[in-house]
């Protein structure tokens, strides 16, 4: 209060002194122009100060009062604010003036969790820039202007990971006696992603398992019936049937194993991994374990990239191994005999580079995109086979569970249709990304027709080299500053041009 | 926050952008709920989306009125003028987004009476998720004043196009396979088109935000997927 009074007293005093000097000088003629100037300057300066203060006097007063208040409330031990700051759930105090004035609804206090999750600055900010979910805003309004406490569930999709929150709001007693219009409310949020996820996953697992296991089960029961009945004594048929039944049982086993591992990954999807893994080493390990299968098909596995053991990336080793394994396995499945599957590792790739569209005719789709501005550098692994390729229109559904591209044969080794889904979920957990690029078989289309001198001529058919390339990228904790500059997947387009 | 001599002027500008963000939140919720209603065949949710649309209309009118008032009374210059104009344009785009979401919800009510077509509605859901995330990024860019974020939204429109084309092909196969599904599939096709339009509005908004923040127009043309050749 003292501060405020002194401010208000100085200003008129300044002008009184200025005017006084002027009057005093008028008795002592001749007037000195410089003195007049000085006196006017004093008057003008004090008037200006006065006007400026008038503008935001209220704010000044509030600011001046704030420290005083804190001193008064201070009990022995930590203050309320310090206690709230330590609460793990986001807690905010919201102030509001009038129901119509949205901008005036400000977060005046946010604890550490709230600041981190909702990107609120230390000194608070407008409520809408923290949360703009209509239900929550309504809930806060009810607490502010209706005096009703309530709770509301809402979903917030943070990047590729959905988050479920529950918001509680309650009115708080008026803090500011001078500013009657100001109202306060408490807003507490709780992350309910875990429990919701559990619920949803159980339902998903049951639905998937019961649906996908039905086919092999039906075939096994069918063969059992036949073996019991007509084929009881037919030795040749029995062997054949038993081997089919064995294959189906294997398939069921694989399916259950995949479903379980998918469930496990989904469960921990919103918890980012904390360990470090060496990507080149993981690739080498996977390639070593797959050479036998590759040799059977006479497919060469080629690794390009830095030496193992030097560049650790953020990740869970087992899961990264699984990503590489599934991708290489997939490539081997579709690679033709006597061809080559290349595995390329690039470090220090920036996000725009990782998802940049390469030119050329190949179709390209980002299946998974990491949150922006979280990590600066990514390590990218690209697995590429010269298989038949996938048509553009099938790309968006690729990582869907149990999705199978129409008319695509995966050879004798039947997959479960979960491989890419597992890859996607693991990469999502690592906050990375997944891009597919593919050149399918090209039929004569508009692109091949040239208009020349008014005549439409068809270009001679060039069979482009078909391929499929999956690029997965994982965040790096830091830039390694490798000597070689990261290359984009533009090579694919370049090789296409060479072929033409 | 604002360093205008007249404090209320700055307040008015802040109020304007706060209202745009509020409207954005509402539009976002409308799109997400409409897509959810399609995926879960939830008629009640669809009806509530339809009923809530008038809020967006009112907000748009309100923002427009405030913008005009601000221009008339304060004669904003440079950054302030861009801010005002961007608010007006975003409000219009968000209102259109809301209309498209309402249309999706209306169609959701109609197709909930037909047989469920899970693979197709799942594709719609996936496309809806993608479009929602673009909308979210655009609004985050607006409220945070992040040019790069707006730019990256602007540059990644092809993904929505790819999804739209894939869905188009899928729907065609479905309709050819079973003519009884034609009416439901047509509704789904319009839904996909609506989602694609919403994605386009997100791109437009990114352009407006870019202009607001930098004062420069985009000169390069937007990357586009080679769409028509794939649609036969």
From TrEMBL, chain A:
Gene3D superfamilies: 1.10.287.130, Histidine kinase-like ATPase, C-terminal domain. One of its GO terms (biological process) is osmosensory signaling via phosphorelay pathway. It catalyses: ATP + protein L-histidine = ADP + protein N-phospho-L-histidine. Keywords: ATP-binding, Cell membrane, Kinase, Membrane, Nucleotide-binding, Phosphoprotein, Transferase, Transmembrane, Transmembrane helix, Two-component regulatory system. Signal peptide: none annotated. GO terms for cellular component: plasma membrane. One of its GO terms (molecular function) is ATP binding. InterPro entries: BphY/WalK/GraS-like, HATPase_C_sf, HATPase_dom, His_kinase_dom, HisK_dim/P_dom, HisK_dim/P_sf, PAS, Sig_transdc_His_kin-like_C. This is histidine kinase. It comes from Asticcacaulis benevestitus DSM 16100 = ATCC BAA-896.
